Amino acid sequence: MRLLVVGGGGREHALCGALRRENPDADLYCAPGNPGTAELAVNLPIAAEDLDRMADAADMHGIDLTVVGPELPLARGLADRLRAEGRAVFGPGAAAAQLEASKAFAKEVMAVAGVPTATSRTFHELRPALNYIAAHDEPLVVKASGLAAGKGAIVCATRRDAADAARGMLGGGILGEAGRTVVVEACLQGEEISVLAITDGHEIELLPVAQDHKRLLEGDTGPNTGGMGAYSPVSIATPALLERIRREVLLPTLAEMQRRRTPFSGVLYAGLMIDPAGAPWVVEFNCRLGDPEAQVVLPLVADGLTDCLASVALGGPPRPLVRRSESAVTTVLAAEGYPDAPRKGAAITIPADLPEGVSVFHAGTTRDQAGVLRASGGRVLAVTGVAPGFDEARRRSRVTAEAIGFEGKVWRRDIGWREAARLEASVGR
Ligand code: AMP
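A: This is the predicted complex of the input protein with adenosine monophosphate.
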């Protein structure tokens, strides 16, 4: 079997890890990959968004299954392109990827499908957006409709902040094309979870549920980032809640996409707020695995991932995954200055022998000519600890995160704090 993973971040390193585990003898390629994927796959120096060269590479290497990691190539039609050339590819076509690439579109789909989500309005011009903001209760969330690499949503405590955010996007063009259309919505309260559903557009196979930590600093403070860490499973995601999410969120969304004749196949990622009464509300949809969620959920899949992805890529139903009944915690190590202006170039040292149950996934790393590993992006590494219990998984992730050295390393020691507090409370009871 010849497999190609498209992308070059921590998610793709985790994908390569999972595929390699299940297919020790396969020819595995990653484009463009990174120094981490180079240890598991052959890296192809092709940008993920370069559709022409990616299609040529799939041809040249006789790829049987392509798994697309990031959203941008999906939104630009990489899956359509490869499918048109007769290849099996896991990931939605451009039309279905609009669920992520246009928040305005996602809101419209949810409204028609009756999916619970924050009340919102979409704007293309500043004046009506400001009027809407002035007439609505604080806090408000102002979102660039287009793809903004996790930086497009601004949670605003006051109407004044919301007006400034809208001015920045619609007036000042601070997020470029992505912010030319803006969604203003009510702020939801509760606890967030990430539910990742592998789907052919009809049936669903859920990955273990994760909770991401979007804020830069401990205690969930500081600016929003692409994600500073995650853990899985999450105890509030009970079977009853997941059933409700399936019934009220995932299946109606898929049905509406079918009705529009743009069925969604791939990973439908629902970012959900669970309100204090236990009801799920959609914060956002993504059209692919999350990052760092992939680094925390894929190590919990014991078997069946390749079969599941291949079946969906060929138009069949998602096959059941075999899960590990363990816990995983991922800690992200970011570069100094992240998220605004990450400093590149710091030399990285990773302990040669990683402890049991620990994986280090590369994201923003590069090797210089002398072979020294250096930071090359905002999020540099993700350290995943897997163990029979949450506390031990957390300890494993934290100990190795501490042991990895590079100048200016930014990381949170409190990943999983909500789960830890719940466990403590249940022991005290
Ligand atoms: P998004 O880009 O839509 O995923 O938003 C990024 C983050 O902003 C989310 O993970 C939430 O933490 C926060 N957020 C977005 N929309 C809302 C909302 N309506 N209410 C509360 N928080 C939100």
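The pocket of adenosine monophosphate is lined by residues 118, 141, 143, 152-153, 155, 185, 187-188, 192, 214, 224, 271, 283-284 (CB under 6 Å). The mean pLDDT is 97.
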